[in-house]
Inverse folding.
């Protein structure tokens, strides 16, 4: 099954974790033996070879750099200008991977469909570039709203206004409060440029405000269900239904603390907590039941989003194992047509509808 994964922090892994993603996962793990600076060292799941092995030919790939005040307990950059510079370094990495033939940027309907056809032409994947749609996770690095057009011109096509905590344009996970005027101005400029609003990470106040003020395309690249894991990072049933009414697609995420209740970072074990790909199915199936169809879910794995095998489904070793999820949906009675929608077609149709 061809897979489109709508959320991968590839440049963060390359630039901040110092992973050369042209290596396969076993090589990445071996290169990190003995490292202790990050909790997921030796536990990587994502690489270009493993994306190809898993027939994951299109990804939504992020830039990410948070602005924080100097006394913040959340890591980040102490000025918007520093955060912007960090995203530009990440952009340079994507461009270098394009030059190396590893990736190709997708920015419009024509490049999307052309790349999809290349990956489904029946030839081996091992030499095919990974198609990527550029997204910004948290808008703190947009120095002012005029920078959004600069970003659009280098290929930015989706923006999540918030990440964790309070943000310059919107408040995110574990924060509360509505957007100020600069956040509303950001939404209007996104609408003008036809940049997708990624509702992921918006706190409840900002979520409802954004839906009220933004008339463009909305998706949620990586979100699970509050009904199954009661935390503000997840969507309530009411929020899911509001997204469905807007024609959104919601990507199922594979971070264990979003999948099972009572997860304790650095302590809980996926096997002992019974966190499996079946658990991911339960979240995605819940959305299907609320929507009454399979038209509004997809994959947004967030694998290696600052966690590795210590905090993802125990039956997933590398991202190529997303193919196991296909069989789980089939075993639960989902039709071949619905499975195709879930693993790529919903995202493709969404983009075809909203892009020129």
């Amino acid at each position: 099954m061809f897979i489109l994964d709508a959320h991968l922090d590839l440049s963060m892994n390359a630039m901040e974790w110092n992973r050369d993603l042209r290596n396969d996962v076993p090589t990445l793990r071996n290169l990190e033996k003995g490292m202790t600076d990050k909790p997921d060292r030796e536990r990587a799941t994502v690489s270009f070879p493993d994306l190809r092995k898993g027939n994951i030919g299109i990804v939504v790939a992020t830039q990410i750099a948070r602005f924080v005040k100097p006394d913040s307990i959340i890591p980040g950059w102490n000025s918007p200008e520093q955060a912007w510079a960090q995203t530009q370094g990440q952009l340079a990495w994507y461009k270098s991977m394009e030059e190396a033939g590893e990736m190709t940027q997708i920015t419009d309907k024509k490049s999307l469909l052309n790349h999809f056809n290349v990956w489904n032409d029946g030839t081996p994947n091992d030499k095919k570039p990974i198609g990527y749609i550029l997204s910004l996770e948290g808008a703190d690095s947009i120095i002012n709203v005029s920078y959004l057009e600069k970003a659009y011109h280098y290929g930015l096509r989706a923006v999540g206004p918030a990440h964790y905590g309070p943000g310059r344009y919107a408040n995110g996970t574990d924060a509360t409060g509505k957007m100020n005027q600069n956040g509303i101005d950001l939404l209007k400029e996104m609408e003008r440029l036809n940049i997708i609003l990624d509702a992921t990470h918006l706190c409840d106040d900002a979520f409802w405000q954004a839906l009220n003020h933004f008339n463009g395309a909305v998706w949620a690249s990586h979100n699970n269900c509050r009904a199954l894991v009661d935390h503000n990072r997840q969507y309530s049933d009411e929020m899911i239904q509001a997204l469905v009414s807007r024609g959104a697609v919601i990507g199922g995420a594979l971070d264990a603390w979003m999948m099972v209740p009572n997860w304790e970072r650095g302590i809980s074990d996926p096997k002992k907590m019974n966190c499996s790909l079946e658990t991911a199915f339960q979240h995605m199936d819940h959305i299907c039941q609320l929507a009454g169809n399979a038209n509004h879910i997809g994959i947004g794995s967030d694998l290696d989003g600052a966690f590795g095998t210590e905090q993802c489904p125990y039956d997933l070793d590398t991202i190529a194992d997303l193919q196991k999820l296909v069989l789980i949906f089939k075993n639960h009675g989902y039709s071949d047509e619905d499975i195709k929608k879930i693993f790529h077609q919903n995202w493709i149709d969404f983009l075809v509808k909203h892009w020129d």
User: Anything to note?
Assistant: Strands lie at 3-8, 56-63, 103-105, 130-137, 156-160, 196-198, 218-219, 250-252, 297-299. The first strand starts at residue 3 and ends at 8.
